[in-house]
Amino acid sequence: MNGNDPASAKTDNTMRNAVERLHDLEAAINRGPVIYCIWRFAEGAPVEYISNNIVQWGYTPEDFMSGRKTWYGITHHDDIYRLQEEIRVNLKNNIPMFEQSYRVFNSKGEIRWIQDQTVFIYDRAGLVTHLQGSILDVSEQNQTRQILYETQNLYQTVFENAGTAIGIADQDRNILLGNKKMEELTGYTLAELTGEKRQWDSFITAPDVEMLKSQHKKRLAEPSKPPHQYDVRFITKGGGMKDIQLTATMIPGTQKSLVSILDITDRTQAEKELRESRERLQELLARSSDIIAVVDDQGIFQYVSPSVKKILDYDQSDLVGRSCLDFIHPDETETILTELKDLVLYQNTGIATEFRFRTAAGDWTYLEALGSNCLHNPAIRGIIINARDVTERKRLELQLLHSQKMEAVGRLAGGIAHDFNNILMGIQGYISLLLLKTDAVHTDFEKLINVQALVQSGADLTGKLLGFARGGRYELKATDINTLIARTVNLFGRTKKEIAVHQKYEKKPWTVEVDRVQIEQVILNLLVNAGQAMPQGGDIYVETKNVAVGRSSRAGNLEPGNYIKISITDTGLGMDEETRQKIFEPFFTTKEKVRGVGLGLASAFGIIKEHGGIITAASEPGKGTTFTIYLTTSDKEISKENYDVKATLTGDEAILLVDDESSIIEVCRDILASLGYKIFTAGSGREAVALYALNKEKIDLVLLDMIMPGLNGAETYNQLKSINPHVKVILSTGYSGSEEAQKILDRGCSGLIQKPFRIEDLSQKIRQVIDADAELQEKPGQNHADSMTVSASDPSDISPRRQ
Fold it and tell me: Which pTM was predicted?
C-alpha cells in the first residue's frame, strides 16, 4: 500500500482519532465512581473486562482478568443464589436491563453494598453471550439512610420514654404533643391535652401565669434566646398542687416551643437527704483512694481529706495551714505557682497538672491533680484539688518510652549487623578456602588463623548487635533452665576463683522454649558484669523459681501465666538510680573505653524481650545489684543438645545457592564446590523459583538467603514449597526478625545457619539436613561425579562448567 495515498492517510487518521476517543472514554470511566464490568455468560461468570477504578476496592483489573479473583468469589455468599436467580428470571422474561443490589468484599475483607445495573449482551443469533454491569458503591448512602432511620427512632424513643414530662406547643401555647410522663404529671390523657386546644400555662397558678406569658413573647421575638427555668406551682386534673421546674425553649426553625416539666415537690425531702449525703461524703473522703484538698488563693491548705494518710503518710494537721508549694519538687514549683495564679484568675476553670510531692518519709511521689476554682462559692471559698498517685503509671510510661527508644536503635543495629555479617561472610569464606589449601607448616597458616579469629570477633560483636536488635533468636528448643544455667555458672566459676557463686535451683523447674546459645550469652553477660562489680571478690547468688502470675498480680508487669524466674544477685558496688535507668541502653557503659562497648546488657535486654520475657535490675550504691529475668514456660518435651566435635563433611549432591549479594554467591559457590557438591546459583528469589521449577528433580537442597529485595526469603520458600512440598531448605542470614524466621522453620524449613559461618559449620548443617531422610536415594540418571555450577541468569542452561 502506498504510504502517500490520501485515502490511506485519512483511514489511519480516523483510526487514531477513534483510539484516542476510546482512551479518553476509558480514562473518564476510571475517574468516575462507576465500575464497568463484562462477564461471560458461563459457569462462574468469568470476567472478561473490568475498569481500572476497581482499585477503589483494593483490587486490580489483572486480579480478575487473570482468574486469581472471580466476581462470585468476592460476592457475599448469602447473596450469590439470589443474584443468579434474578438473572434467570429476567432472562426468561426477556428483560434486557435490570438492577441488582448486593454485597461484596473489598481486598481488606470489608463489606461494601453495591447497586449493579446489569444488561444482557446478545449475539447476532439472539443468544446471550455476556452480561455488562455498571456498578456503583452505595455503602455510604445506605449507611446514611440507616443513620437517619436510627436517629428518628432514637429521638422518638427518647421523647416517649424520657423521665421528664415533655410537650410541644405552638406559638399560641396550645399543646400539640406530649409524652407519657406529661399524662402522668397532669392527670390528663394525651387526647385531652391536645384535643381541646389546652394551653400549657393553663395548669399554672395565677401568680405565675402572666410571667410565663411574658417570657413566651420574648422567646418568640428572640428565638435564639437560651432556655430558662422557672419554679412555679402546678395544678393537676384532680386539683392537686405540685411544685414544678418548667423549662421552655424555642425549636429552631419554627415558632413552636419545647416544654419540659420536672416535679420538684419532693425538694424539701431532697434537701434533708442532701444533709445526710454530706455525712456520707465525709466517709467517702476518708476512704477514697484520691486526695481531696482545698487551698486558698495563696496555695495554703484549708482542708485535706483523711485519705492523705494512706497515700502520703501525713496527718491532716501536718498540711492544713501550710503552703502546698513547700511540698512540691523544686523543679516544678514555678510551674505549679503559675497554674495556681491562672486558677485564681479564671473562675470556674479546671486545670489539670502533674507534679512530684514529698511524702512524710521524704520520698517523691508523682501526683496527677485537677484544680477547680470555687473561690466564689460561699460553701467552699477555695480551690478544690483532686489528686491521685500516678507513680506506678509514670514508671510504666518511662518503661514504654525506654522500650520504644530501644526498638528504634535496635532496628538500626539490626541493619548494621546484617550488612556487616555479609561482609564478614565473604572474608570468612575466602579464609576457609585458603585454609583448605594451606598446610599447618606454611608461613601464612598462622596469619590466616589469626584473621579467622578476628572475623569471629567481628561476628561476636554483630551477635551482640543482633541480640540487642532482637533479631538473633532462631533455634528454639525445649530446655531445662537449671541445666543450662548450671553449665554456664560452672564455666564462669572456673575463671573467677575469688568469687563465691551460690546456686539455688527450683527442684522441678517448668520447661522453657529458648535459643540455648542466646540465653547462655545473657547469663554469662550478667555473671561477668557481677564479677566486674566486685574487683576485690565477693558473692554471687543464682536462683531459679517457678512463678505463676495471676490476673491480680503485678509482678514485673507481666501478663497472667506461668514463668521461670531467674535471679542473679551480687554483693558488689551497686549503682545509683540514674545509672540503673541507662544500663540497658546500647553503648552505655561505666567501664573504661578499652574494656567494652556497652552492648552486653543491651543485647541481654533484646534477647529476653524477643523470648517474650522481661529483664529488670534493682540496685543501690554499696548494696549490690539484682538482675531478675522472667521467661514464659512451654509444654514441649525437652530435647538434649549434642556437642559433637566439628569436622568438615563432604558430599556429591546438587545444591541451589540463593543470595542477592554477588560476593556471597561467589565465595559460597567455591566453598560448596570444594566440598564436592554440584551448584546451581540464583541472585534473587524469582530466579531461584524459576530455576528450581526446571530442575527440582536434580536439586537436593536449597541454601536460601533470608533477606532479599523483591521476593524475600519467606516468599521464596513458600513458592518452592508449592513446587515441591518436600523441598529441603536451609535459611542463611546475617540478620532477620526471629519471629519471621521461626515461622518459616515451623512451616517445615529444614534448618538455619547464621552468617558468617565457617566451612565446617556449613558442611555439617548440609549433611544434617540431607541425611535426615533415611530413605534418601541417588536420583535415577543423575551423575554425581562432576562438580558443576548452573547460573540462574538462564534457567534453561544447565550444562556443567568445571570449577
Answer: 0.37
